[in-house]
Amino acid sequence: MISSTDLQLVQAIARGGSLAAASRTLNVTASAVSQRLSSLEQRLGLKLAERSGGASLVMTTEGELLAARAEQLLNTLDGLEEEIAAQRGIISGHLKVIAPLGFGRLRIAPLLATFQTQNQGITVNLQLSDQLGHLPRDSWDIIFRVGPLKNSDLLRTTIASNRRILCASPDYLKQHGSPRTPADLTNHQCIAIREDDEDVTLWRFTGKEGKRSDIRIAPPLASNDGEVAKGWALSDRGIILRSEWSVREDIKAGRLTELLPHWQAPDAPVTALTHHNSTKPARVQLFLDFAKERLGKTV
After folding, report:
1. From which residue to which does any coiled coil extend (predicted)?
2. Whole-number average pLDDT of the chain
3. Which end of the chain is more exposed for a tag (fewer CB within 10 A), N or C?
């Protein structure tokens, strides 16, 4: 008989692709994963995974079939537990959230901590990534995005509006002057934030009466972490185009100065992506409502 523990083992190996990755997921040693896999294969009389190139594991045809069914069955079991708990007025389960590096660290992480404190029956896992242009292989409940979303069949919920602001430190502007038009940016040190697959060196602006101005910058500094880029701007290294949630307090305190206020870069709304389930799990809908209520006031 195959148990839920066996299904979790196969799922972890299929997702991780190695004994080490599966051991981290299951919180056991790699040798324990190897022993459990061998035991399961002996009971089934089937080879589920083959070693390939050192420590890597490749699922066999039978292993892939079992891994696919394991995903379905474990999700069904999780849903059943939630339904039973809901009958007693308890919302429970494991909430898996993925978010961008900077926004996830500064906004989603503290939000999830508060949410979990208020909902003790829910456990939380937060994964931060700067590559959200492609859906992750791991299972997830909610993916947060900041900025425009390319074609997606996922359900999207707008959490908060968010404009992007062009800004630099007062000392940088004293040394280099302030741009009067978007075209002037080509004569400045502009700092790029490399996220997903976006064309980050093409800055687009819309002025009065819908006039467009697209500028190709040549950044001397670039990072995949927006907070690193902001740190450079605060250190007088150049001009950044950054989300309002990140620079609002710095502008208010005079550490950064907004530039070209009559030219607007495309907005970068905060959205939450979820699966097309017939009904969202209660834990997912509860956190979406919580995030919209909290972030809608602060972003």
Report:
1. 63-90
2. 87
3. N
CATH superfamily of 164-258: Periplasmic binding protein-like II (3.40.190.10)
* H-assigned helices in 88-136: 101-103, 109-118
- The CA-CA-CA angle for residues 221, 233, 168, to 5°, reads 120
Rounded to an integer, what distance in angstroms lies between the CA atom of residue 95 and that of residue 142?
A: 8
| Strand pairing class (93-100; 142-146) | parallel
Q: Which residues, at least 6 apart from 80, have a Cβ–Cβ distance to it below 8 Å?
A: none
- Say what the pLDDT of residue 21 is: 84
The pairing of strands 93-100 and 122-129 is: parallel
Inter-CA distances, 108 with 87, 194, 248, 298, Å: 29, 20, 17, 12
Buried-exposed string 139-156: b where 16+ CB fall within 10 A, e elsewhere: ebbbbbbbbeeeeeeeee
Local structure of residue 53 (DSSP, 8 states) = S
pLDDT of residue 137: 56
12 or 88: whose pLDDT is higher?
12
Sign of the torsion formed by the C-alpha atoms of 232, 236, 238 and 243: positive
The model's pTM: 0.72
Q: Answer for the pair 221, 238: CB distance below 8 angstroms, yes or no.
A: yes
Return the closest-CA partner of residue 79 out of 68, 90, 93: 93
Neighbours of 276 (CB within 10 A): 8
